């Protein structure tokens, strides 16, 4: 870990992308505010440039005068305030995470805001672990909603869940080609389908590319979802619809984003590491990852890279 001895040098390196782990029940804007606040605090704690001097001429006007340099109190941090404030930083996210969703969040600092825009336009797939519970349905499809239905779930087995999620995935695979902007019976569509999955032309309609059950211990279960253009409420609805097809009821109990493009959980900074030194190291790591995977920013075809 590089230790900077000068605040100005450290500030110049804060141009890039960072990968952080967003806790649940914490808004994205609060994550932004906390990170920028911590950066300003750490920068102001480092030695800064020397205080400016001002020229002072003393003595009688009818005699030789003395010119000397004295401290300029207008440049003193005790007078003008901290050197680094929130106004010095621009911060944006690549993909928004809902209030109740935890996991990987990509943030761009200063010039890195252009990278978040390019990642957003490229629309890489994101992977989630969606936790659900059988036997109860709520009006919001989430655990904090009002209970509107209770039902038995003893007839639900792992095999039934696997069969239904496979059917749901195949239905979305068909929708994927319908949203590609190409005619379903064209040769171009066939050529694209023979090479793999493609990204939808519309950036607002969710498409699921992978869906499987990775944990089943009644009444709790966990689905792993790989999707594009998804949002929090849509994933809640997915659990509710699964419960309906299983002839019972279900609601979502938790959401965790475990991958975004090539960014995985092992690169995400935990809340305790939202400090200047860790952020700069993470920014270098993210820069190396993007250099190795240019398709993250500039996809060369309609096919998904991950």
Layout: helices, strands, pairs:
Blueprint: H1 7-12, E1 16-22, H2 28-45, E2 53-58, E3 66-71, H3 77-80, E4 91-93, E5 101-109, H4 113-122, E6 126-134, E7 136-138, E8 147-150, H5 158-178, H6 187-195, E9 207-217, E10 220-228, H7 232-245, E11 250-260, E12 263-264, H8 276-292
Parallel strand pairs: 5-11
Antiparallel strand pairs: 1-5, 2-3, 4-5, 6-10, 6-11, 7-8, 9-10, 11-12
Give a short overview.
This protein has helices spanning 7-12, 28-45, 77-80, 113-122, 158-178, 187-195, 232-245, 276-292; strands spanning 16-22, 53-58, 66-71, 91-93, 101-109, 126-134, 136-138, 147-150, 207-217, 220-228, 250-260, 263-264.
Task: List key phrases describing it.
eight-stranded mixed sheet; 12 strands; alpha+beta; 306 residues; 32% helix; 26% strand
Any overview of this molecule?
The chain is built from 8 helices and 12 strands. The chain is an alpha+beta fold and 306 residues long. Strands 1, 4, 5, 6, 9, 10, 11 and 12 form an 8-stranded mixed β-sheet that branches. It has a two-stranded antiparallel ribbon with strand order 2-3. It is elongated, with a radius of gyration of 27 Å.
The share of residues in extended strands comes to 25-35%
By DSSP, the count of extended strands is 12
Order of helices and strands: HEHEEHEEHEEEHHEEHEEH
Please state the average pLDDT score: 88
> Could you give the distance between the termini?
30 Å
Radius of gyration: 27 Å
The main sheet comes to: 8 strands, mixed
